[in-house]
Design brief:
single chain, 333 residues, alpha/beta, 8-stranded parallel barrel, disordered C terminus
C-alpha cells in the first residue's frame, strides 16, 4: 500500500488508515476478539497507519489498539491519537454498568471527559495515552475538536504540542475537526504538519476545496481525510441512511443514489469511488476509514484497490454533481 509523508515531518502514513473509534464500541459493542481481528486484518492488508483518541470509548479504543499492535515492530507502523479531552475517574465508578450509550459509545461509565486545552492538559493527555497504548512515543498528535476553545488552544494547547514535538515525544502535530475554517487557520497561523478533516471532502461535500486544500498545498502541509462516506450515506445510499450522523435529507439521498447509478454503470461500487476520490488531490496524504470488523477492513482495502475509470469522474463533472478542485498540480480528482 502506498505511503506518504505528513508535511515536512518524517512521519509516514499509508494511504488507507484504520480508524479505531469503532473498536472503542462506537454506537454498538465490539467484542475484544473481534477488535483484535479487525486490527490483524488491517495489518494483513498492508495498513500501517492507525488512528485513535481518548474520547473513543473512554480510553477503550487506545487500550485495544495498543494490545493489538503489541509485538509488532515499532518502526513499522504509525499511531495517531488526540488531545483536548482528559479522562478522569468517577468516584465509586468501579461498579458502574452501561445504561444506554456514553456519548455514542457502549462502555461502562467509569470516567468522565473534561475539555482541557491548557499546556498541562495537553501534556497529561499525551502521557495518559502513552500509558493506555503501551508506547514510548506518539507518532501524530491532533488537537481534537477545538471548535469552542479557540482562544485557549492557540494560546496554550498548540504551543504545548510544538514543545512535545521538539522533545521527540510526538513526531508530528496537527488538529482534527469536522469543519474547515479553523483547520485553515491552523495551516496559516501555526506550524502544524497535518490536519485531519472529517466529512468535508467527499463526493457530496466539497467544502475543503474552498480554502483548506489550496492552503495546505501552498504551504506543503498534509491533509488526512476522514468521513469519506459521510457517516454512511455514501457507503449504502437508501432511505434511512445517515449523513453526518443524522438522517440524510432527501436532496442528498437523491444525489447519492444518482452517483451510485453512474458508478455502477462504469462497473464501480460507490464505496470505491467515495474512498478514492480525495486521494487524487495533491494535498491529501491519506483517507481514514472507521472499521469495526475484519470484514469491513477487507472491504475497505478492496475498495481502495478497485479500478475507477476516468470516465466516471468525467461524467459526474459533466453533470455538475462533482466539484472541480480549486487548485491542483495538473492532476484532477
Amino acid at each position: 500500500m502506498r505511503r506518504n509523508t505528513l508535511g515536512r515531518s518524517a512521519v509516514g502514513i499509508t494511504e488507507l488508515s484504520f480508524g479505531a473509534a469503532a473498536i472503542g464500541n462506537l454506537f454498538s459493542e465490539v467484542a475484544p476478539e473481534r477488535a483484535a481481528e479487525a486490527v490483524e486484518a488491517a495489518w494483513d492488508e498492508g495498513v500501517r497507519y492507525f488512528d485513535t483518541a481518548p474520547h473513543y470509548g473512554l480510553g477503550l479504543s487506545e487500550r485495544r489498539l495498543g494490545e493489538a499492535l503489541r509485538g509488532r515492530p515499532r518502526d513499522a507502523y504509525t499511531v495517531s491519537t488526540k488531545v483536548g479531552r482528559v479522562l478522569e475517574p468517577l468516584p465509586g465508578a468501579g461498579n458502574a454498568t452501561v445504561e444506554g450509550l456514553d456519548e455514542g459509545f457502549a462502555v461502562p461509565v467509569t470516567h468522565r471527559r473534561r475539555w482541557d486545552f491548557s499546556a498541562d492538559g495537553i501534556r497529561r493527555s499525551v502521557e495518559d495515552s502513552l500509558g493506555r497504548l503501551g508506547l514510548d512515543r506518539i507518532d501524530v498528535a491532533y488537537l481534537h475538536d477545538p471548535d469552542d476553545h479557540a482562544e485557549q488552544v492557540f494560546r496554550e494547547g498548540y504551543p504545548a504540542l510544538e514543545k512535545l514535538r521538539a522533545e521527540g515525544v510526538v513526531g508530528a502535530i496537527g488538529a482534527g475537526m469536522n469543519q474547515t475554517a479553523m483547520l485553515t487557520r491552523f495551516l496559516r497561523d501555526t506550524d502544524v504538519d497535518a490536519v485531519l478533516c472529517a466529512g468535508r471532502y467527499t463526493l457530496l461535500d466539497g467544502g475543503a476545496l474552498d480554502e483548506l486544500l489550496p492552503e495546505a498545498q501552498a504551504r506543503g502541509r498534509s491533509v488526512v481525510v476522514g468521513g469519506v462516506f459521510n457517516s454512511g450515506l455514501l457507503a449504502d445510499p437508501r432511505p434511512g441512511a445517515t449523513y453526518d450522523y443524522a438522517a440524510a435529507p432527501m436532496s442528498l439521498l437523491d444525489r447519492a443514489l444518482h452517483m451510485q447509478t453512474v458508478a455502477e454503470r462504469h462497473g464501480v461500487p460507490l464505496r470505491a469511488a467515495a474512498l478514492q476520490y480525495p486521494l487524487a488531490h495533491p494535498a491529501v496524504a491519506g483517507v481514514l476509514v472507521g472499521t469495526r470488523s475484519a470484514h469491513e477492513v477487507r472491504d475497505a482495502a478492496a475498495m481502495m484497490r478497485a479500478p475507477v475509470p476516468d470516465a466516471l469522474w468525467d461524467e459526474l463533472r459533466a453533470e455538475g454533481v462533482l466539484r472541480e478542485p480549486a487548485t491542483t498540480n495538473g492532476e484532477r480528482p
